[in-house]
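A quick word before the example. In earlier lectures we treated sequence and structure as two separate objects. From today on, think of them as two lines of the same record. Here is DUF3124 domain-containing protein written that way.
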Amino acid sequence: MRAVRWLVPFLALAACADTPQSVTEAPTPPASVDPSGAPGRSLDGAEAGQLVYVPAYSHVFSGDGERDLLLTATLSVRNADPERPIRLEGVRYVGSEGQTIRSYVDAPQALGPLATASFVVAESDRAGGVGASFLVEWTGGAGGVPPVVQAVMISTAGQQGISFVTEGRVVAEAGQP
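And the structure line, produced from the sequence above:
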């Protein structure tokens, strides 16, 4: 019951949001991006890294399976290391058939200590289908803390809403086939 008490005001505020972020443009880099991450420069000791798969339920079915519900999906990449930057090498939105729908990072981008980068798929975007996902490739110094990579899906209609989070899963480590 406690969870419902905080969820209702949150959903009410979310329903009042202005216009959604456009999905046709790459997002503005976070204000805390480390300037040492300019394209062409490498992070000192860049030995660690991963490819992370994150389910993105931007399109789900309800009821008898013929009604669909479109959700806004926000990918959040959080550098959990309080001392070291990481580098986002690539962020791709992938459709149900495994095809790349769009790339959000055209050039490597540094993410400073404890900084977060987010990437949005608008609620009206049907391109990914029911099996959409994100692939996030990051690198950083050996011994650093891996980032927290999650997707948050949300939709509100009238006085009802749905929201949930998916966790990223490491599918490849740097330097391993």
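Notice the following. Residues 1-46 have pLDDT under 50 and may be disordered. We will return to this example when we discuss secondary structure assignment.
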